[in-house]
Amino acid sequence: MEKRAEKRRRIVLVPLPLQGHITPMMQLGQALNLKGFSITVALGELNQVSSSSQHFPGFQFVTILETVPVSQHETLGLVEFLVKLNKTTEASFKNCIAQLLLQQGNDIACIIYDELMYFSEAAAKELKVPSVMFCTGSATNQVCSCILSKLNVEKFLIDMEDPEMQDKVVENLHPLKYKNLPTSGMGPLKPFLDICREVCNKRTASAVIINTTSCLESLSLSWLQQELEIPVYPLGPLHIRASANLSLLEEDRTCIEWLNKKKPRSVIYISFGSIAHMETKELLEMACGLCDSNQPFLWVIRPGSIPGSELLPEEVSKMVSERGYIVKWAPQNDVLAHPAVGGFWSHCGWNSTLESIVEGVPMICRPFNGEQKLNALYIQSVWRIGIQLEGEVERGSVERAVKMLIMDDEGACMRERALGLKEKLKASVGIGGSSYNALDELVNYLETECSTS
Ligand code: UDP
Q: Which Pfam families match (predicted)?
């Protein structure tokens, strides 16, 4: 008699332990856990997140020995850090998975790795464990990585001096133009394109998960589905389903009490995510513009985000004390969901973008690097739910942008469109919606293609 195949029920997650990456990976873990999979999270020995791991009961956390502390991305720059991390971690991750296979009696159905943790593929291939790549950014950003990965550096540099080429639309993906390809803030072009090549080389990965949904990025998703030739699962926004967040910094919840005392839709919330830095001059211009707008504001200023000054300049503290409230780290989803919040001034990281749309909050965009600029382009020109602050930050433009967003008809129209998108996103994760179905298809895929011996 034929031996019945045993189902493997364990998924190993390999997140990049930066806030914007680990958050959606843990949310994906929760979604799969609810579907009956056991979850193991593999983290480098120098990148443990024990303080928050208690929010994920039942998850197993394992340590990858010999890797690189994530703090090095600040000193090395993201590209050099990723090269070093991937080189250093490949062998130790293989050992980690080999040990797990022994301990778990071969129960690993699949390794799901952050696209930037591409070292994971070597272990998956050698130990014959199926693997799936997870993109925590937008589908459009993934398209751009694929396009950049095929470019010749010298030719691209020459092409980009030609204004006609700069304004050429990429692969019919209107409004994406060559000048929007997200290369800025990534250091020298060649190493960055090398990373794009690594990220787009799917190796033995058998599927791709993206934290997006088809109503936001249908063109880019269709492009990817054709290009990658493996299943693509757009099952986001993942945070709608999540019951807990893994916050690497302590959230200051006093800001919710402060918000409770404000009028509906009157407050502008300002946060530039977990990585971006600001110059003192910019900080002062922001503070002046915000005060001149006469609107109340809640401002996240992360410790260390203003190089060279540990304390907030006194002028700023004094200026903001009347109308503003400053925290080091906010419970962002609760803030965006609060009725007092009327707008979000954001650096346009992908998670912040999704979180703002899910709460129907219009945005002021102040992107710092190429990927964020890409998100800002979509916020302003595709979904039309925000405006971009261009050039140097200057108090007059800050005041105008805040007033426009909170008080003018133009801002009201953006809010209306944002609320329309909110409904679409909620429908996409609800029963029968595209993201709901994509999650079911992924589960089916993991159960049939990956989990039988
Ligand atoms: N975040 C938060 N509190 C804050 C600021 C940010 O919880 O005060 C969270 C935010 O909700 C988002 C993440 O940090 O989930 C930032 O990710 P994003 O992709 O927006 O930007 P990154 O930090 O990667 O630049």
A: UDPGT
Q: Are 85 and 68 in contact (CB under 8 A)?
A: yes
Q: What is the CATH number of domain 254-426?
A: 3.40.50.2000
> Which residue's CA is the closest to the ligand 1 atom numbered 24?
20
Domains 2-245+431-450 and 254-426 share a fold: yes
DSSP secondary-structure letter at 36?
A: T
* pLDDT at residue 315, as a whole number: 80
Q: What is the pLDDT of residue 231?
A: 97
Q: How far apart are CA 286 and CA 273, in angstroms?
A: 16
d(CA 449, CA 130) in angstroms, rounded, equals 9
Distances in whole angstroms, Cα of residue 414 to Cα of each of 229, 319, 334, 400, 405: 37, 29, 21, 15, 8
pTM over 0.90? The answer is yes
Helix, strand, coil percentages in the chain from 3-state DSSP, rounded to 5 = 50, 15, 35
pLDDT of 164 > 80? The answer is yes
Residue 453 has pLDDT above 80, yes or no: no
Q: Is 27 in the pocket of ligand 1 (CB under 6 A)?
A: no
pLDDT higher than threshold 80 for residue 389: yes
Report the separation in Å between the CA atom of 304 and the middle of ligand 1, taken as the mean of its atom positions. 15
What is d(CA 450, CA 128) in angstroms, rounded to the nearest whole number?
11
Where do the domains of the chain lie? Answer: 2-245+431-450, 254-426
Report the topology of domain 2-245+431-450: Rossmann fold (3.40.50)
Mutate to test the pocket of ligand 1, among 332, 335, 371 (most ligand atoms within 8 A of CB): 332
Q: Which residue owns the Cα nearest ligand 1 atom 13?
A: 20
Closest ligand 1 atom to residue 239 Cα is: 15
